[in-house]
Each structure stands twice: as structure tokens, then as C-alpha cells.
Amino acid sequence: MSAVRFPRSSSRARLWCGALVIACLALGPFAHAQDALTADAVNAAAPDAGDAALLRAQVLLDRAHFSPGEIDARAGTNTTRAVAAFQRHRGLGDSGELDADTWAALTADAPAALIEHTIAADDVAGPFRALPDDMMEKSRLDALGFETAVEALGERFHAAPALLRRLNPDARFVAGSRILVPNVRDTAPLAAPDRVIVSKSDSVVRLVDAAGKVYAQFPASTGSERDPLPIGDWTIEGVATDPTFHYNPELFWDADPSHAKAVLAPGPNNPVGTVWIDLSKPHYGIHGTPEPANIGKTQSHGCIRMTNWSARRVAEVVRPGMTAVLEE
After folding, report:
1. pLDDT tens per residue across span 147-163
2. What distance in Å separates the CA atoms of residue 13 and residue 15, rounded to the nearest whole number?
3. What is the pLDDT of residues 93-139, one digit of tens each?
4. Which string of DSSP letters, residue by residue, matches 256-322?
5. Which of 174, 246, 288, 300 is deepest in the core (most CB within 10 A)?
């Protein structure tokens, strides 16, 4: 629940290698963990091209508003759910697999998945600093910004910092440098939904039009056993950008007993990220996160947690009075 006030031995080595081979076989065509990810390889990738194909698919899914979450060129449930949602939208079933028909629909007339970007001074202006884990220590800071320039660039391009380093192994990530990035800018605008649906079982947020068709989907963390998602129909009451976080340890079962109420400054590493979509259920909202890699994979304290960029996309098209359906 979020509280926001709105305003090795040789035998072991053999076992490890055997497990790795099994895992790679299970991943099928996306198992080549360290394939070279050049612009040419990714932008022309066929569906059997390993990591290059997976990266191309993730970028194009993001552009189509069926987000795989943090783009990382790694197979996982978020990408599978994104593929299945894209398939349903296009009438292609919902296997979650990049079969021939799905690949053709996803890549037809598609732009390059990777493009070059010249790092601007504003991209890496900072200030960057390591942040404490303790909530009380965080409350003493005047901002909760990015810790590194690569983290800031990752957020801008919806990418895992590790992916940016892999794409640009020799880059210094300073102003003036040219780097390879996912092409997620200048996508088609989202239409305003008729309602928002949060699915606990699928760990996603969906935008639905008046005809009941899902036209956008984003991964989400949707509560836990201790702080379950409040199932039901709620109302969106407003949106706050760059919110402060009003920390109340009484609302967190795992809070340090020595903690007191505190206000945490805004920033992308604020506990609710850069956007808060307020719901009529007290203390609950749809919001961003300081840990995009965990979205859809770990539990939350009851609220609906998304990547900052996905939360911003949703915030741009919802309005006060709109229904948010929180379902199993």
C-alpha cells in the first residue's frame, strides 16, 4: 500500500553448465544470451534470430502500446503477455508466441527498432548520486533523482541500463557521445479509454475502448497476500506528476518500528515514481516506480505499480470520474 497525499568445483561446474544448456533449450530461438546486438542485426532480425529478434519485438510491442515493460532483450512473462495482448488485438489468437503471422503483423511497415542518439547535455545533467535504502534517510534528501547517467538514459528509452551497456560497450555516456538506443520516441498517441482495467491474475493494466476492446496494455505489480489488490470498481479522482510521498509506517506491515511519518521528495526514484493516478479507494493509486525491472515480477504494498514511462502514458489519457476496474 502506498501513501500519497494528492496535490565452484569441477562437478558443480558440470552441473551448472548442464542446467544452462537445458535452460537455453527451453528458451528456444531466444536463447542466445550474448548474440551481438548491432543496429543491422536487430533492425533486420527474423523471428529465429535469438536476442536480436527478441529485442526487435520488444521495441515494436512498446511502440504499439503493448508494453513488455523494461526493454532488456530477455525472454520473460512480461514479453509473453505483451505478445498475447497484441495477438488478441489483431485477431491472431493469444498464444504469446512470435509465430509467423504475429511476426508479420508486428514488423509490417515498422520503423527501425534501434536508432542512434546523440547524448544531449540535458540527458546527463544530473545531479547523480547514490541513494540510501532507508526511508528516513531518503526523507532528508531534497530530491530523489537518478543515481547514474545510464539509469537516466534507460528511463528515457524504456531500456534496462544493462541493455544500453551491451548495445554500447565502448560508450562513455557523456554529452556528445552517439549511442544506440531503442526507438521508442515519437510513437502514435494513445486515445482516451472508456475505462481502465487492472488484472491481478495477468499482472497488467489495460486500456479499453467503448466497444470493450483492449487497445493498450502495460505490465504492473498489483499487491500481495498481505496487501491484496482491492477488487472492485473504483473512480479515478485525478493525476499528480512528480508527487511527494507521504510515508506512514503504520500502513506498511514490514516498516522499521523506529520509523516515523515523513515526506519524501519528488523524483524518478521516489517510492511512487514520477506519476500518481489517484483512486477513490483511500491510499490506493496507479503509479510509477524506482525499480522498473521488477514490474510484473514482484509484489507491491497493495497499489498498482508500473514503470514510470507506462504510468505517464496512462496518466496522459485518463480523466477524473473515469472507472478503474480492479479484477482478479
Report:
1. 999 999 999 999 999 99
2. 5
3. 999 999 999 999 999 999 999 999 999 999 999 999 999 999 999 99
4. -TT---EEEPPSTTSTTTTEEEEESSTT-EEE--S-GGGTTTS--SSSEE--HHHHHHHHTT--TT-
5. 288
